[in-house]
Design goal:
about 375 residues, six-stranded parallel sheet, single chain, 2 domains, Rossmann fold, alpha/beta
Length: about 375
Protein backbone atom coordinates (compact mmCIF):
# COMPACT_ATOMS: atom_id res chain seq x y z
CA UNK A 1 0.00 0.00 0.00
CA UNK A 2 1.32 3.46 -0.84
CA UNK A 3 2.21 5.56 2.15
CA UNK A 4 -0.28 8.24 3.09
CA UNK A 5 0.97 11.78 3.60
CA UNK A 6 -0.75 13.81 6.29
CA UNK A 7 1.18 16.87 5.07
CA UNK A 8 2.26 19.03 7.98
CA UNK A 9 3.27 21.92 5.71
CA UNK A 10 -0.14 23.57 5.41
CA UNK A 11 -0.41 23.93 9.20
CA UNK A 12 2.86 25.65 9.96
CA UNK A 13 2.63 29.23 11.21
CA UNK A 14 3.07 31.82 8.49
CA UNK A 15 6.03 33.41 10.24
CA UNK A 16 7.86 30.09 10.02
CA UNK A 17 7.70 30.22 6.24
CA UNK A 18 10.75 32.03 4.79
CA UNK A 19 8.73 32.95 1.70
CA UNK A 20 6.00 34.72 3.68
CA UNK A 21 5.45 38.36 2.70
CA UNK A 22 6.53 39.40 6.22
CA UNK A 23 10.09 38.70 5.13
CA UNK A 24 9.83 40.83 1.99
CA UNK A 25 10.65 44.54 2.17
CA UNK A 26 8.22 46.64 0.18
CA UNK A 27 8.80 50.38 -0.13
CA UNK A 28 5.30 51.75 -0.66
CA UNK A 29 3.85 54.95 0.75
CA UNK A 30 1.97 54.29 4.01
CA UNK A 31 -1.79 54.41 4.37
CA UNK A 32 -3.28 57.38 6.25
CA UNK A 33 -5.60 55.29 8.41
CA UNK A 34 -7.22 58.19 10.25
CA UNK A 35 -8.44 59.68 6.95
CA UNK A 36 -10.34 56.54 5.91
CA UNK A 37 -13.94 56.58 7.12
CA UNK A 38 -15.54 54.44 4.40
CA UNK A 39 -13.64 51.46 3.01
CA UNK A 40 -14.47 48.99 0.25
CA UNK A 41 -13.12 45.44 0.06
CA UNK A 42 -13.34 43.67 -3.30
CA UNK A 43 -13.89 40.00 -2.62
CA UNK A 44 -12.51 37.13 -4.64
CA UNK A 45 -14.96 35.28 -6.89
CA UNK A 46 -14.83 31.67 -5.68
CA UNK A 47 -16.06 30.14 -2.44
CA UNK A 48 -12.76 28.62 -1.34
CA UNK A 49 -10.79 31.75 -2.19
CA UNK A 50 -13.33 33.88 -0.32
CA UNK A 51 -12.96 31.73 2.81
CA UNK A 52 -9.19 32.07 2.57
CA UNK A 53 -9.54 35.88 2.52
CA UNK A 54 -11.34 35.93 5.88
CA UNK A 55 -8.10 36.43 7.89
CA UNK A 56 -7.40 39.48 5.72
CA UNK A 57 -10.95 40.80 6.21
CA UNK A 58 -10.57 40.43 9.99
CA UNK A 59 -7.21 42.20 9.86
CA UNK A 60 -8.70 45.05 7.80
CA UNK A 61 -11.30 45.62 10.52
CA UNK A 62 -8.59 45.68 13.19
CA UNK A 63 -6.63 48.25 11.20
CA UNK A 64 -9.75 50.37 10.59
CA UNK A 65 -11.88 49.85 13.74
CA UNK A 66 -13.99 52.97 13.24
CA UNK A 67 -14.48 52.81 9.47
CA UNK A 68 -17.64 51.69 7.72
CA UNK A 69 -16.49 48.61 5.81
CA UNK A 70 -18.37 47.30 2.77
CA UNK A 71 -17.48 44.25 0.71
CA UNK A 72 -18.23 43.91 -3.01
CA UNK A 73 -18.92 40.30 -3.87
CA UNK A 74 -20.48 38.08 -6.50
CA UNK A 75 -23.89 36.70 -5.38
CA UNK A 76 -22.74 33.09 -4.94
CA UNK A 77 -19.93 34.16 -2.58
CA UNK A 78 -21.99 36.59 -0.46
CA UNK A 79 -23.01 33.99 2.20
CA UNK A 80 -19.35 33.70 3.25
CA UNK A 81 -19.53 37.28 4.53
CA UNK A 82 -23.22 37.72 5.36
CA UNK A 83 -22.70 37.00 9.08
CA UNK A 84 -19.19 38.44 9.41
CA UNK A 85 -18.71 40.71 12.43
CA UNK A 86 -16.02 42.56 10.47
CA UNK A 87 -18.21 43.78 7.59
CA UNK A 88 -20.92 46.43 7.80
CA UNK A 89 -22.45 46.15 4.32
CA UNK A 90 -22.63 43.58 1.52
CA UNK A 91 -22.67 45.02 -2.00
CA UNK A 92 -23.59 42.59 -4.79
CA UNK A 93 -21.77 42.56 -8.12
CA UNK A 94 -24.52 41.22 -10.38
CA UNK A 95 -22.45 40.37 -13.45
CA UNK A 96 -25.23 38.44 -15.19
CA UNK A 97 -27.86 41.09 -14.46
CA UNK A 98 -27.64 44.83 -14.04
CA UNK A 99 -23.82 44.86 -14.07
CA UNK A 100 -23.50 42.79 -17.25
CA UNK A 101 -21.19 44.01 -20.01
CA UNK A 102 -19.30 47.29 -20.28
CA UNK A 103 -22.39 49.39 -19.56
CA UNK A 104 -23.12 47.34 -16.46
CA UNK A 105 -19.60 47.75 -15.14
CA UNK A 106 -19.79 51.50 -15.65
CA UNK A 107 -23.09 51.44 -13.75
CA UNK A 108 -21.37 49.53 -10.94
CA UNK A 109 -18.62 52.16 -10.80
CA UNK A 110 -21.29 54.86 -10.67
CA UNK A 111 -23.11 53.02 -7.87
CA UNK A 112 -19.89 52.67 -5.87
CA UNK A 113 -19.14 56.36 -6.32
CA UNK A 114 -22.38 57.20 -4.50
CA UNK A 115 -21.02 55.54 -1.35
CA UNK A 116 -18.15 58.01 -1.10
CA UNK A 117 -15.48 55.43 -0.33
CA UNK A 118 -12.13 56.79 0.86
CA UNK A 119 -10.22 53.60 0.05
CA UNK A 120 -10.55 50.22 -1.64
CA UNK A 121 -8.56 47.07 -0.86
CA UNK A 122 -8.65 44.70 -3.81
CA UNK A 123 -8.31 41.09 -2.69
CA UNK A 124 -9.39 40.08 -6.20
CA UNK A 125 -6.51 40.20 -8.68
CA UNK A 126 -8.21 41.07 -11.96
CA UNK A 127 -7.58 44.17 -14.05
CA UNK A 128 -11.33 44.78 -13.97
CA UNK A 129 -11.34 45.12 -10.18
CA UNK A 130 -8.87 48.00 -10.34
CA UNK A 131 -10.59 49.61 -13.33
CA UNK A 132 -14.00 49.71 -11.62
CA UNK A 133 -12.62 51.33 -8.46
CA UNK A 134 -10.66 53.79 -10.60
CA UNK A 135 -13.83 54.88 -12.43
CA UNK A 136 -15.64 54.96 -9.09
CA UNK A 137 -13.25 57.74 -8.08
CA UNK A 138 -12.03 55.99 -4.94
CA UNK A 139 -8.93 58.02 -4.02
CA UNK A 140 -6.92 55.24 -2.34
CA UNK A 141 -6.75 51.93 -4.25
CA UNK A 142 -4.67 49.08 -2.81
CA UNK A 143 -3.83 45.73 -4.38
CA UNK A 144 -1.24 43.52 -6.03
CA UNK A 145 0.21 44.89 -9.26
CA UNK A 146 -0.96 41.88 -11.27
CA UNK A 147 -2.70 41.77 -14.67
CA UNK A 148 -0.99 44.97 -15.86
CA UNK A 149 -3.13 47.04 -13.50
CA UNK A 150 -0.45 48.73 -11.41
CA UNK A 151 -1.03 52.13 -13.02
CA UNK A 152 -4.67 52.05 -11.81
CA UNK A 153 -3.62 51.61 -8.18
CA UNK A 154 -2.40 54.30 -5.80
CA UNK A 155 -0.75 51.64 -3.61
CA UNK A 156 0.54 48.95 -5.96
CA UNK A 157 1.99 46.01 -4.02
CA UNK A 158 4.65 44.00 -5.90
CA UNK A 159 3.52 40.42 -6.46
CA UNK A 160 6.88 38.72 -6.18
CA UNK A 161 7.43 35.05 -7.05
CA UNK A 162 7.95 34.13 -3.38
CA UNK A 163 4.45 35.30 -2.49
CA UNK A 164 2.88 32.74 -4.85
CA UNK A 165 4.58 29.85 -3.03
CA UNK A 166 2.92 30.34 0.36
CA UNK A 167 -0.56 29.42 1.53
CA UNK A 168 -3.30 31.55 0.00
CA UNK A 169 -4.24 33.00 3.39
CA UNK A 170 -0.73 34.47 3.60
CA UNK A 171 -0.98 35.62 0.00
CA UNK A 172 -3.98 37.82 0.79
CA UNK A 173 -2.45 39.05 4.04
CA UNK A 174 0.57 40.06 1.96
CA UNK A 175 -1.48 42.86 0.38
CA UNK A 176 -1.94 44.43 3.80
CA UNK A 177 1.65 43.86 4.86
CA UNK A 178 2.81 45.40 1.60
CA UNK A 179 1.34 48.75 2.62
CA UNK A 180 2.38 48.59 6.27
CA UNK A 181 -0.89 47.38 7.80
CA UNK A 182 -1.00 44.91 10.67
CA UNK A 183 -2.24 41.34 10.31
CA UNK A 184 -4.00 39.12 12.84
CA UNK A 185 -2.79 35.63 12.01
CA UNK A 186 -4.06 33.05 9.50
CA UNK A 187 -7.13 31.82 11.40
CA UNK A 188 -10.18 31.47 9.17
CA UNK A 189 -13.51 33.10 10.08
CA UNK A 190 -16.97 31.81 9.22
CA UNK A 191 -20.14 32.43 11.24
CA UNK A 192 -23.38 30.44 11.01
CA UNK A 193 -26.48 32.29 12.21
CA UNK A 194 -29.40 30.74 14.09
CA UNK A 195 -31.78 31.02 11.15
CA UNK A 196 -29.52 28.95 8.87
CA UNK A 197 -28.83 26.43 11.64
CA UNK A 198 -32.57 25.93 12.19
CA UNK A 199 -33.09 25.51 8.45
CA UNK A 200 -30.33 22.86 8.37
CA UNK A 201 -31.98 21.01 11.25
CA UNK A 202 -35.28 21.11 9.35
CA UNK A 203 -33.65 19.64 6.23
CA UNK A 204 -32.26 16.76 8.30
CA UNK A 205 -35.60 16.25 10.00
CA UNK A 206 -37.25 15.89 6.59
CA UNK A 207 -34.92 12.93 6.01
CA UNK A 208 -35.60 11.37 9.41
CA UNK A 209 -32.35 12.55 10.98
CA UNK A 210 -32.07 14.32 14.34
CA UNK A 211 -29.35 16.56 15.76
CA UNK A 212 -28.24 13.68 17.98
CA UNK A 213 -27.44 11.39 15.05
CA UNK A 214 -23.88 10.95 13.83
CA UNK A 215 -23.35 12.72 10.52
CA UNK A 216 -20.57 12.37 7.95
CA UNK A 217 -20.53 14.76 5.01
CA UNK A 218 -19.11 13.63 1.67
CA UNK A 219 -18.18 16.19 -0.99
CA UNK A 220 -17.19 14.22 -4.13
CA UNK A 221 -17.13 17.21 -6.50
CA UNK A 222 -14.64 19.98 -7.22
CA UNK A 223 -14.43 22.79 -9.74
CA UNK A 224 -11.56 23.29 -12.21
CA UNK A 225 -11.71 19.87 -13.80
CA UNK A 226 -11.79 16.16 -12.91
CA UNK A 227 -8.13 15.93 -11.87
CA UNK A 228 -9.09 17.17 -8.39
CA UNK A 229 -11.77 14.51 -7.92
CA UNK A 230 -11.30 11.18 -6.18
CA UNK A 231 -13.28 8.40 -7.84
CA UNK A 232 -17.08 8.19 -7.26
CA UNK A 233 -17.00 4.43 -6.70
CA UNK A 234 -14.42 4.87 -3.93
CA UNK A 235 -16.52 7.54 -2.25
CA UNK A 236 -19.45 5.10 -2.43
CA UNK A 237 -17.42 2.23 -0.92
CA UNK A 238 -15.97 4.49 1.79
CA UNK A 239 -19.42 5.84 2.69
CA UNK A 240 -20.87 2.33 3.03
CA UNK A 241 -17.96 1.32 5.25
CA UNK A 242 -18.40 4.36 7.49
CA UNK A 243 -22.10 3.64 7.84
CA UNK A 244 -21.52 -0.03 8.64
CA UNK A 245 -18.75 0.53 11.22
CA UNK A 246 -19.88 3.77 12.87
CA UNK A 247 -23.62 3.87 12.14
CA UNK A 248 -23.25 7.31 10.63
CA UNK A 249 -25.74 8.96 8.31
CA UNK A 250 -24.05 9.98 5.05
CA UNK A 251 -24.80 13.39 3.53
CA UNK A 252 -23.73 13.99 -0.08
CA UNK A 253 -22.86 17.61 -0.86
CA UNK A 254 -22.52 19.29 -4.24
CA UNK A 255 -23.65 22.20 -6.37
CA UNK A 256 -26.27 22.41 -9.12
CA UNK A 257 -23.86 20.82 -11.61
CA UNK A 258 -23.34 17.79 -9.35
CA UNK A 259 -26.87 16.35 -9.37
CA UNK A 260 -25.89 13.53 -11.73
CA UNK A 261 -22.81 12.75 -9.62
CA UNK A 262 -24.95 12.56 -6.49
CA UNK A 263 -27.39 10.16 -8.17
CA UNK A 264 -24.54 8.03 -9.49
CA UNK A 265 -22.88 7.64 -6.09
CA UNK A 266 -26.23 7.00 -4.37
CA UNK A 267 -26.96 4.19 -6.82
CA UNK A 268 -23.56 2.61 -6.13
CA UNK A 269 -24.12 2.54 -2.37
CA UNK A 270 -25.69 -0.33 -0.44
CA UNK A 271 -26.91 2.06 2.26
CA UNK A 272 -28.69 5.05 0.67
CA UNK A 273 -27.27 8.45 1.65
CA UNK A 274 -29.06 11.77 1.93
CA UNK A 275 -28.28 13.23 -1.49
CA UNK A 276 -28.12 17.04 -1.18
CA UNK A 277 -26.27 17.64 -4.45
CA UNK A 278 -27.72 20.75 -6.06
CA UNK A 279 -30.54 20.91 -3.50
CA UNK A 280 -29.21 23.44 -0.99
CA UNK A 281 -28.25 27.08 -1.02
CA UNK A 282 -24.69 27.85 0.07
CA UNK A 283 -25.82 29.16 3.46
CA UNK A 284 -27.77 25.93 4.02
CA UNK A 285 -24.79 23.81 2.99
CA UNK A 286 -22.56 25.75 5.40
CA UNK A 287 -25.01 25.18 8.26
CA UNK A 288 -25.30 21.46 7.41
CA UNK A 289 -21.51 21.08 7.32
CA UNK A 290 -21.43 22.76 10.74
CA UNK A 291 -23.57 19.89 12.06
CA UNK A 292 -21.31 17.13 10.71
CA UNK A 293 -19.06 15.02 12.91
CA UNK A 294 -16.72 14.53 9.95
CA UNK A 295 -16.42 15.97 6.43
CA UNK A 296 -14.56 14.15 3.64
CA UNK A 297 -13.84 16.09 0.48
CA UNK A 298 -11.69 16.82 -2.53
CA UNK A 299 -9.77 20.10 -2.69
CA UNK A 300 -12.78 22.41 -3.04
CA UNK A 301 -14.60 25.45 -1.72
CA UNK A 302 -16.57 23.38 0.77
CA UNK A 303 -13.29 21.95 2.05
CA UNK A 304 -12.33 25.46 3.16
CA UNK A 305 -15.79 26.00 4.63
CA UNK A 306 -15.38 22.90 6.83
CA UNK A 307 -11.87 24.01 7.81
CA UNK A 308 -13.14 27.44 8.79
CA UNK A 309 -15.83 25.83 10.95
CA UNK A 310 -13.18 23.58 12.58
CA UNK A 311 -15.09 20.46 11.61
CA UNK A 312 -13.10 17.22 11.62
CA UNK A 313 -11.99 17.11 8.02
CA UNK A 314 -10.28 14.74 5.60
CA UNK A 315 -9.10 16.38 2.38
CA UNK A 316 -8.03 14.18 -0.54
CA UNK A 317 -5.36 15.83 -2.68
CA UNK A 318 -3.94 14.82 -6.03
CA UNK A 319 -3.26 17.41 -8.73
CA UNK A 320 -3.26 20.47 -6.46
CA UNK A 321 -0.79 21.76 -3.91
CA UNK A 322 -1.66 21.34 -0.21
CA UNK A 323 1.04 23.83 0.77
CA UNK A 324 -0.75 26.68 -1.02
CA UNK A 325 -4.42 25.62 -0.89
CA UNK A 326 -4.62 23.01 1.86
CA UNK A 327 -7.22 23.33 4.65
CA UNK A 328 -6.15 25.54 7.55
CA UNK A 329 -8.46 24.08 10.21
CA UNK A 330 -6.93 22.66 13.38
CA UNK A 331 -8.93 19.44 12.92
CA UNK A 332 -7.97 18.92 9.28
CA UNK A 333 -6.05 16.01 7.79
CA UNK A 334 -4.72 15.68 4.25
CA UNK A 335 -4.48 12.34 2.47
CA UNK A 336 -2.27 12.27 -0.61
CA UNK A 337 0.37 10.10 -2.25
CA UNK A 338 3.47 12.06 -3.30
CA UNK A 339 4.43 11.21 -6.88
CA UNK A 340 6.81 12.92 -9.26
CA UNK A 341 4.13 14.64 -11.35
CA UNK A 342 2.03 15.96 -8.46
CA UNK A 343 1.06 18.70 -7.97
CA UNK A 344 0.64 19.40 -11.67
CA UNK A 345 -2.17 21.97 -11.18
CA UNK A 346 -3.82 20.73 -14.37
CA UNK A 347 -7.64 20.50 -14.72
CA UNK A 348 -7.25 17.11 -16.40
CA UNK A 349 -4.51 14.53 -15.92
CA UNK A 350 -1.94 15.16 -18.70
CA UNK A 351 -0.90 11.48 -18.53
CA UNK A 352 -4.47 10.27 -18.80
CA UNK A 353 -4.50 7.88 -15.82
CA UNK A 354 -4.78 10.10 -12.72
CA UNK A 355 -2.10 8.15 -10.86
CA UNK A 356 -2.07 10.58 -7.92
CA UNK A 357 -5.69 9.72 -7.13
CA UNK A 358 -5.54 6.05 -8.15
CA UNK A 359 -2.96 5.33 -5.44
CA UNK A 360 -5.30 6.59 -2.72
CA UNK A 361 -7.45 3.59 -1.84
CA UNK A 362 -10.49 3.31 0.41
CA UNK A 363 -8.58 1.67 3.27
CA UNK A 364 -6.07 4.50 3.31
CA UNK A 365 -8.78 7.09 3.83
CA UNK A 366 -10.70 4.89 6.26
CA UNK A 367 -7.66 4.67 8.55
CA UNK A 368 -7.88 8.45 8.96
CA UNK A 369 -11.66 8.21 9.44
CA UNK A 370 -11.04 5.90 12.41
CA UNK A 371 -8.65 8.43 13.93
CA UNK A 372 -11.14 11.27 13.68
CA UNK A 373 -14.38 9.40 14.55
Amino acid sequence: MAKKDLAADPYRQDNENPCHPCSIKMAIKPIQIKNIKRLLIRSTNWIGDAVMTTPAVRAIRKNFPDAEISILTKPWVAPIFSNSPYVDKLLIYDEVGKHKGIAGKMQLAKDLKQHGFDAAILLQNAFEAALITFFAGIPCRIGYNRDVRGFLLTHSVPCRPQIKKIHQTGYYLGILQGVGLDTDGPRLDLVVNNKDQKRAAKILEEHGISRADRLVGINPSATFGPAKQWFPERYADLSDKIHEVFGANILLFGGPGDRELGIRISQMMQHPPVDLCGKTKLEEAIALINMCNLFITNDSGLMHVAAALDIHLIAIFGSTNPVTTGPKGLNSRIVRVPIDCSPCLKPECPKGHLKCMDQIDVDMVFEVVKELL
